[in-house]
Each structure stands twice: as structure tokens, then as C-alpha cells.
Amino acid sequence: MAFNNEFRPTNPICSFAIIYVYVLCVHICIYIYIYVYIDIYLYVFNMYSILYKLLWTVLHVKMHILECAPTAQSIVLHERWYSNCQRLVLRHT
């Protein structure tokens, strides 16, 4: 049984052009896919980065508020200091 060579190009330049166009199309498709994938990845990463920075800022501010918030011990120390100052002032007047 003979093979059907009807669709096989006999000209080597023509076969090279077909292979070149095929490889070019594959490369273009790969580049588009990678570009879109990286673009989506960077967009998502940027959104997570913004949310992370926002969360970090909120937690940082919250920690500063908690550090500066008067605790029971700091209130007692402040009252002692204030009463000692009052006694010193009253003694010297």
C-alpha cells in the first residue's frame, strides 16, 4: 500500500515556512499566556500586598494604643506619684 503524499510539500522552502509559522504561532500563544498569567498574578499579589500593609498598619497602631493605654498598674503608679507631689507641695507651703 502506497502512502498518500498529496498534502506533503515537496518544496523545502515551503515546508520551512510552514514550520516557522507554526513555531511562531506557538511562541506568540505562550507569550500571551505568560503575559496574562503574570499580569493577573501581579495584580493579585499587589492587592494582597496592599491588604497586608493595611493590616500591618492597623495592628501597629493598635499595639501603640494598647501600649499607651493606662493599665491598672500605671494608674496606681500615677496616683502615687501625684499624691507624693501633693505632699511635697503641701509641706513646702
Q: Which range does the strand content fall in? A: under 5%
Number of strands: 0
Rounded to an integer in angstroms, the radius of gyration calculated over CA atoms is 38 Å
Share of residues in helices = over 70%
Unreliable spans: none
Q: How many strands, which pairing sense, and closed or not: the largest β-sheet?
A: none
Mean pLDDT across all amino acids: 72
Tell me the distance between the termini. Answer: 127 Å
Which structural class should the secondary elements be placed in?
mainly alpha
- How many domains would you count in the coordinates? 1
Report the principal-axis shape. Answer: rod-shaped
Query: So how many helices?
Result: 2
Helix/strand order: HH
In words, what does this structure look like?
Helix content is 83%, strand content 0%. It has 93 residues and is an all-alpha fold. The protein has one domain. The termini are far apart.
